[in-house]
Specification:
Blueprint (H helix, E strand, L loop, with lengths): L25 H5 L8 H5 L5 E4 L2 E4 L9 H5 L7 H9 L15 E7 L2 H4 L7 H11 L5 E7 L6 E6 L30 E5 L1 H12 L10 E7 L7 H10 L7 E7 L2 E6 L4 E5 L24 E4 L8 E5 L2 H12 L3 E5 L7 H24 L8
Parallel strand pairs: 4-6, 6-7, 7-11
Antiparallel strand pairs: 1-2, 3-12, 3-13, 4-5, 8-9, 9-10, 11-12
């Protein structure tokens, strides 16, 4: 039965004072569970959102409470079982041993000299972008470059192969890559990002409501990530190591330590357990180490020094990897199935999941907001 109805507003109130049923992601920011992916800022129709230094900013006066930001947020609700089914292209729920659906995993490294000279490990993510742009499979790519402030990254729209070098190397400060998606609505894109960003993109693809900035993403290239830091926390790590951040040439996390390599050739390190309190608290609510929602996932855990571990997850990712091989752009070998190869990766991924579950449970027990996975 359908009938007309009216909304009665008290004489002391205006129609604009009625609270919408849609929540903005302000509640995610305030609950300290924001991933910092930047997608909310990209799709906001009134530009009332932004992610700065890993923290969300919200303009209450501009917000129209449309609910889009909450809808796409990977920390509002995220059906991991559904994501896995879509990734694996199956209609049943399976267990994927802490690293998500995939066809195969390899150890690989680039053959492109310009990339190998500046890359963090094997240079595979940069090589993917090089190939996709060279073959006009995408019009542009989104990655992270160093800003004018050393070791503070910022999103970069890459439209030429020569610009890829600017994005080489790992940055450990949160960078909201997806924030610039609203600038490139008519371009076919490849996006390089960390697990939360891959989750946000896949979620938006599944729950598709035709948001313009999300319609042309052709490839999702995920990066392994345990956690990120604010810029201030990174400076504190440098203080602990007694090194000026301006003298840092490269940073790395390996073998349970945070390494800083200086321009003068020094190698400095501190155990991760001694600086874990400096990580973004919001990152404690992420379960995903290996970018399970990507087409290809790239990291270093499980492979020899100078090589990447590459996890091939989707048909599109499989085709891309095979094309890199066919064009002789990369070297590839089966990943070590022994203790320090894939089993090590699964163990570390499992530890991140366990840590995430503890934080989610803690918030439940305290009756605080938590991500719904």
């Amino acid at each position: 039965i359908f009938r007309d109805f009216t909304i009665k507003v008290p004489e002391t109130e205006s129609i604009t004072s009625i609270k919408s049923i849609y929540e903005p992601v302000k509640v995610i920011f305030e609950s300290e569970i924001c991933s910092g992916c930047g997608l909310c800022a990209a799709i906001c129709p009134v530009n009332c959102l932004g992610i700065y230094n890993g923290f969300g900013k919200f303009d209450e006066n501009k917000c129209i409470r449309c609910g889009l930001c909450y809808y796409v947020c990977p920390r509002s609700y995220l059906s991991v079982k559904l994501l896995n089914m879509v990734q694996a292209n199956v209609d049943e729920i399976k267990d994927y041993n802490n690293i998500g659906p995939h066809f195969e995993a390899y150890s690989a490294r680039t053959k492109i000299k310009e990339i190998s000279e500046v890359c963090q490990d094997g240079g595979i993510s940069s090589t993917c972008l090089y190939y996709l742009l060279d073959k006009n499979k995408v019009d542009a790519a989104i990655g992270a470059k160093m800003s004018n402030t050393l070791w503070r990254p910022e999103p970069l729209l890459i439209e030429k192969k020569e610009e890829i070098i600017q994005t080489a190397g790992t940055k450990y400060v949160n960078n909201p890559n997806l924030q610039i998606l609203n600038e490139v609505q008519e371009k076919k894109l490849a996006v390089v990002g960390v697990p939360c960003q891959m989750q946000a993109l896949l979620k938006s693809n599944i729950y598709d409501i035709s948001i313009p900035s999300l319609q042309n993403i052709e490839y999702r290239i995920g990066i392994f990530c345990m956690e990120s830091f604010s810029y201030e926390s990174l400076l504190k790590i440098c203080e602990i190591l007694k090194v000026d951040v301006k003298d840092a040439k490269k940073m790395d996390i390996n073998k349970g330590k945070f390494f800083v390599y200086t321009n003068s050739g020094e190698e400095l390190s501190v155990p991760i357990k001694e600086i874990s309190h400096l990580g973004r608290e919001d990152c404690e609510f992420c379960f995903d180490l290996t970018s399970e929602s990507a087409d290809l996932s790239v990291g270093s855990i499980g492979s020899p020094s100078g090589w990447n571990t590459v996890i091939v997850r989707t048909e599109k990712g499989k085709q891309l990897y095979n094309e890199l091989l066919a064009n002789k752009l990369i070297e590839s070998k089966p990943i070590n199935k022994e203790k320090f190869g894939l089993p090590l990766l699964k163990r570390i991924a499992g530890s991140k999941r366990t840590k995430c579950n503890k934080h989610v449970t803690s918030n439940k027990d305290k009756n605080k907001r938590f991500p719904h996975y």
